[in-house]
Amino acid sequence: MQSNVKKIVVMGLGYIGLPTASLLATKGHHVVGVDINKAAVDTINQGEIHIVEPDLDILVKSAVHSGKLRASLVPEEADIFIIAVPTPFKDGYTPDMTCVEAATRTIAPFVAVDNMIILESTSPVGTTERIRDILAEERPDLFNAAGGKTMARVMISHCPERVLPGQILKELVSNDRIIGGIDQTSREKTAEFYRSFVSGQVLVTDARTAEMAKLTENSFRDVNIAFANELSLICDRLGINVWELIELANRHPRVNILQPGPGVGGHCIAVDPWFIVSAAPEEAKLIRMARQVNDGKPHWVLEKVKSKAEKFKHPVIGCLGLAFKADIDDLRESPALEITRELIASGVGRVMACEPNVQGGFEEFPLYEIQDVLREADILLLLVDHQEFKGVDRELLKEKVVIDTRGVWR
Ligand code: SAJ
Asked: Residue 377's pLDDT band (boundaries 50, 70, 90)?
């Protein structure tokens, strides 16, 4: 085996782990992707994918067919272990680290001296140190005690994933990366590994700063979206078009306001700020408030629809879009889905939902074609700025009550 070709185990084959594993395999490394989901493992071993992301199918197919990538339910010995498992929150908005801890304990028997362990999952501050402590507990032979300090004989770093769903393959290579090591060797050697496949800059720091940097990036976005969402409520009260307002204000050279919407969805921005709030509840006032503003927006939209529906005897409400953002099929934490479900449950009228990126329907409700919704609905509720909705003939909207939460039809 060439010295720069490594054996790599990737723990977790989701939106981050699978693209990463496939990319590394196409760079010539021998990659074993590990997941607890047998159906996902079988699908990948057939060269197919269980998630939707542009061009990922081609990459996975080529990685699997080259023999460099295979999926498995169990890890094995390797040079590098990458952990890319979910880090959700539990009741009370505290981080649920079960998957990271389980992945660490699962790889522990296979780790050898001089191996590299990399945590990519977005994690609360202190998680990389926690991985070190779990390993020290499971495998004391991987650590030296010197001068009262425990020195790891393995490299452990945090390299937070930063890719945008919908652009994962491009951003996996082009984004700058932050490497936070538990010691100098960890950060330098891990940075060297990332520089071998990343074209962006690779910046090094300590593990806690790297963890906080990732949480900060997503909180920055959440706070700024909350500002836009709060403006949309204020403008509604004052009879001002918020989209025109933002466009005008953004012509100032130092102003860059984001876009209001029906709320913030996805598994990242709606989750990660809570990791900061839970670690520093006294101080993180603005970050908590932003979460509350964004989480309150679906309810505001719901009330808006209900008040418009009052003037109809048997209102038909068309919900356009269910995904958490434009041109994807991802429904996780989606405010559009939440609003649609609550509208149905409220019994305020007949709801016709349309989601062009999802095939078939849902257990609780059917999906309709856009033409049928446009024809039959009294109230059109635009929830996601999908391409399919942007081109709708404005003439068809004239007879309808339109609630456009994304400013697509203004
Ligand atoms: N949204 C708005 N208004 C905006 C921008 C977004 O309402 O102006 C909404 C979207 O509709 C969506 C939510 O925010 O519901 C989040 O969408 P997004 O496109 O901003 O971000 P994500 O969650 O798809 O990906 C984010 C990215 N982080 C940043 O941009 C700082 C990505 O780079 C991260 O890798 C990802 O989180 C992650 O995995 O943490």
From this structure: very high
Whether 214 is a known active-site residue: answer: yes
According to DSSP H, which parts of 7-47 are helical?
Answer: 17-26, 38-45
Q: How far apart are CA 2 and CA 359, in angstroms?
A: 45
| pLDDT 10s digits, 338-358 | 999 999 999 999 999 999 999
Segment 128-139, tens digit of pLDDT: 999 999 999 999
Q: Which residues of 309-342 are buried (b: 16+ CB within 10 A; e: fewer)?
A: beeeeebbbbbbbbbbbbebebbbbbbbbbbbbb
Strand runs (DSSP E) across 147-210, as ranges? 149-152, 155-158, 177-181, 202-206
C-alpha 56 to ligand 1 mean position (Å): 20
Cα–Cα distances in Å, from 50 out to 19, 56, 66, 202, 285? 12, 10, 19, 30, 39
Residue nearest to atom 25 of ligand 1 (CA): 164
259 lines ligand 1 (CB under 6 A): yes
User: With a 6 A CB cut-off, is 383 part of the ligand 1 pocket?
Assistant: no
Position 290 confidence tier, pLDDT thresholds 50, 70, 90: very high
Say yes or no: CB of residue 160 within 6 Å of ligand 1: no
Is there an atom of ligand 1 within 6 Å of 301 CB? no
Which amino acid, 319?
C
- Residue 274 half-sphere exposure, CB side, CA atoms within 13 Å? 19
pTM exceeds 0.90: yes
Q: 3-class secondary structure for 83-134?
A: ECCCCCEEHHHEECCHHHHHHHHHHHHHCCCCCEEEECCCCCCCHHHHHHHH
Q: How far from the centroid of its chain's Cα atoms is residue 323's Cα?
A: 13
Token representation of residue 215 = 């949480």
- Cα 334 from Cα 325, distance rounded (Å): 8
Ligand 1 center to residue 269 CA distance, Å? 6
Among 268, 274, 357, 408, which is best to mutate for testing ligand 1, by the most ligand atoms less than 8 A from CB? 268
CB atoms within 10 A of CB 48: 12
**Given the DSSP bridges, would you call strands 155-158 and 202-206 parallel, antiparallel or unpaired?**
unpaired
Question: What is the chain's alpha carbon radius of gyration, rounded to the nearest angstrom?
Answer: 24
